[in-house]
Amino acid sequence: MRLVMSVAKPPIEFIYTPRMPKKARRSFISKSLILKLAVVALVVMLAGLAWLDARVRSRFDSHQWQLPARVYARPVELYAGRVLSQRHVDQLLSLLRYREQSGAPTPGSYSRSGGTYLIHTRSFRDSDGGEPARQIRLRLADGRISALTRSDGARLPVARLEPMQIGSIHPGHSEDRILVRLADTPPMLHDMLLATEDRQFYEHHGLSFRGLARAMVANLRSGGLSQGGSTLTQQLVKNFWLTRDRTLSRKLLEMPMAVLLELHYEKPQIIETYLNEVYLGQDGSRAIHGMGLAAQFYFGRPLEELEPHHFALLVGMLKGPSLYDPRRRPERALARRNVVLQVSHEQGLLTDSEYQAYSARPLEVVPRGGAALYAFPAFVDLVRRQLARDYPPAVLSSEGLHIHATLDVLAQLAAEDALARVLEQRDPKAANKLNGAVVITAPDQGDVLAVVGDRVPRSTGFNRALDAVRPIGSLAKPAVLLTALEQPKRYSLATLVEDEPIEVPLAHGDVWAPQNFDKQSRGPIPLVQALAQSRNQAMAKLGMDVGLQPLILTLKRLGVQGNIPAYPSIILGSHPLSPFEVAVMYQPLATGGFRTPLRSITDVLDLAGEPLARYPVSADPVIDQGPAFLTQWAMIQVMRAGTGQSMLGVLPPDIVVAGKTGTSDGYRDAWFAGFSGNHLAVVWVGRDDNQPAGVAGSSAALPVWGALMAALPQRSLREDVPPGVEWVWMDADGQRRSAEGCDGALRYPMLTTSIPEAASDCGEDVSQGGIKGWFRRIFD
Fold first, then answer.
1. Last residue of some domain: 319, 338, 359?
2. What are the boundaries of the signal sequence (predicted)?
């Protein structure tokens, strides 16, 4: 029997869930999605705010202003006895933007009564300690400073005027600014800015809802974005991080960034940054940023010297620098300025009388390029070239370097005046025919004091002083004489050389046959006379005798660069050089044999005023003292009895100077290079198209040289002989010693190794002692 068991299955349970209505189900899904989207949006917004916050803080904390390198001239020294004309004082004060004001009450002002100036100088600091702001009284008489005193009448040994900024170095498309600190900003500018742009600046936290509401109403009325309602903080955000485009997206981004900026930084930091960042116009490719530079660009004066109507113009331009450009749209700029003055009056910043007075003032904007920043472009060009060897462009254009240059403003003014005046007298109806260039240096230091590249002062363009490479003509002759004098067994200044026709065969059957300026030959003449009278035939004969290769080596020692071809014509200056290269070549002749590299910079400082580089004076002996002195003495005779003697009535009679005229073939180029004890100047005059100019060195370049040297304080060259040189009376034959009073005898400085043993009868008898000499002196 089989037992069958059965297991009962549990009953199946059915759970009943009421079905959600379709409409309710849709509502639930929508709320869930909205919640998720809201969470995602919140996360995205928080991430965006965090990104914006990081961007704001990173840029603001690490921001380095793009500051070009600035070039400054040396301070102007004033002292009793200095050569100085009233014309140059007026030019100097104009370039420094001193304003004429009765009593000279504030720094940067002056008053004048006849030849007496009361000047309120500006303070400055430099490597020598600087100068405080003070009043000085300057009296001129007979082209000199006759007295220099303090305002109380006490004698003042020397006074210095602040270094003039003569240029800046920035890239082709860049921004420029002069940094100002809020503590140094005139309070009136600060107050006018807030009264006009953001009266609740110290109350809001980046946004002004009152301003936004006002802007919204204006935009609805105009049907577009005519107003922004921005606070100063928003404007800074726009300038610092965003674009100037008036779009809704930019506005929506600008608002949270303004709030974040206010959360992290104090109000003074924000407004100081605003004052330095704000855009205020364009100068060609250079963007003008900040109130500091705008003050110089529009008024030619430091920000602290401006008056309320100047501040009002700058504040008014914030609304649209192009729209209210005072040079292009003066009427519109004047109206906008007066609106700012009116607002300032309503806010109690100006009294009734002040408001009326300042509203009646003109704009007082200087012409474009009228500030000292554009004063001397030819010199700044030289500075650029020197800096390019030592610094990459990015450093020069962004790190705010301060470059102290060697420019002497008064020497520059003298050179500009002399060139322009002489060429105008010679060529009054052909303004574009004759042109010229000038380079002035201080021989002992190698400092370049002035560079003029055009007959029109301070014009930009082709820099003839550095780039007009022309044959130097007779400026090469001192090198020929020096080469001969370095062979003392053969030559002295008394040695005779034949001034007669000479023919030198050249390749291809040509012949080099130079002629004298007057087409005449004078026969045997002493070497010193051959140089002083610039006798071409005699110097050609001498040059061929000493040899072309020794002459080339001499030119190289003097500093001439590049290849010099061994053609006979180099004796008379066929080799082309620029005026600056001529100054380099003449430097050892002016220093007694030492080559001092010409420098346009003394030192470079960083933005904090710490020295980065110095350009010290160096001097290498390249010529022995004896031959150098003899060559210099021969060049002195050029000025006393040679082609430069027309300067005898121009320079003071007690000033000993040396020089040499030069004229190239066809009268294309007129040169003069000469020096005193403290100034070396090179002048070139010619035509840009290299056509015959019909001018000679003595008639065109020498008058320029004389005029500029007469306008500067000069120190005489010394004529006391160095060791190894003696004064000797020489016979007219140039081969025998003679004595004072002997027929035809002349006195020369001579190297002791070149003094001949033989003497003329007169010279031998007079020079000897004993009975024979005594009887000769008594009875003959």
1. 359
2. none
